[in-house]
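Continuing the batch. This is chain 6 of the set; chains 1 through 5 are on the previous pages. Same settings as before, nothing changed between runs. Recording input and output for traceability.
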Amino acid sequence: MAAAAAGAAAADEAEKARGRRAALSFAAIAVVLGLPLWWRTTETYRAALPYADIAALGELSFQLAAPVAVVFAPGSLPGDLSRPLPFRETQEEETLLNPRTSIVSRYEMVYRSTTAQEEAALDAVTVQEADATLHPLQDASLGSLTVYVIPETSSLLPQCLTGSRCLAGYEITFSLLNPDPKSHAVHWDIEGAVSHYVQPFLDKLSFMANFSVDSQILYYAVLGVTPRFDKESSSFLLSAHSLPHVINPVEARLGSSAASLYPVLNFLLYVPERSHSPLYIQDKDGALVGTSAFHSPRWGGIMVYNVEGPAPPQASLPLRVDVDMVRVMEVFLAQLRLLFGVSREVLPPEFLLESPGNEGLADWELDRLLWARTVENVATVSTTLTSLAQLLDKIGNIVIKDDVASEVYRAVAAVQSAMAELAAGRLHSAFQASKEAVTSSERAFFDPSLLHLLYFPDDQKFAIYIPLFLPMAVPILLSLAKIFREAKQRKKEPTKTD
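Output for chain 6:
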């Protein structure tokens, strides 16, 4: 009897020991294998980003190098010149944009005498003839400048000429608005005008952006604002404060901006209906605008084209109207220059500014535009990447894919390349690098994988996983608690001696 009881007790103790080992095994597997595996498979993948380089973008110091060649014609050098020609020197000036960013302009000056070909060109009678001959002899790289110093006895004085080598995806739409086709049959040679005036200008800007040009005629398209009749001039007037209300009703009829994925510039030629003719535009001071046109930044421009003179009494309708495309394109080209940030500078009266002609931009305007766009692009990339880094640092659950990280690294490298090219005076390469930096930074910032719907905050993760793990964890935790209590109780029991 005692032996059977002892055997049962031993069997019971063995069963308890086996249960303890099983509970410890399950707990060990859950902690050692299950927990790391779950943590690894549910963690957010975040590729490494160059946070230090991104932070340094906000403290960049721009260095703009401009190669300048000063060429002295015979008789223009002072007799007491201390250094013989040719020689080089560097001049610097610093502009502070903000407490952390500055622009250092470095002029790399090269002083030399004229060559035989240049001397022959400077013997021309007019500045225009001299410039046409000298232009092929100069450095054609963007950002470079050649200054010719001529003696006071030269026939080219007192004229000074600023050169005309020209520069600078968009979609440009020219629209003819004819609200009264029963009265006016309007004809315009838009294809010839674009080919002769607009396309040469866009060709010079082709390395900055891609352009496409189209045209359309819209009938019964009104401005949406009723002009005011002026009795003194017997004309209708559009005041400056009403001009913003003109664009929205017209834009609904254009359709180009809604159908395009690219920036659209609209140029509208509006022929007023007979009931509102002639129609003029008043500026803020109440004076009439000579061109009868206005423009809106980043949208385009509108020109009012009044039909000259009243219709003859016996004339049959509709009257044929042939648009003077020269007058129209002069206005549209001026607006196009303004939309691209090119403005006319006031020069001293003794300077002659050669007309850029159909190409639309002079050399110095091209250089200034490229410098401004390059600096603007670098600043845009700095702001974009800084915002992205702050977002990713604040929200740790956002996935950072390898392709996003690659775009960020590519943008940082392109900015650094643009800065180096600027410092070396290679303006065209600097601009191209800044464009690549903008493209890469925007691809990274607007990548679909960064959308907030694709990640979960920590509280939502635990709300999802607790119902899954709690039923499995409760038995294991209870078993471990029981084992702990039994072990503690055994320590309190007195040791039995024989």
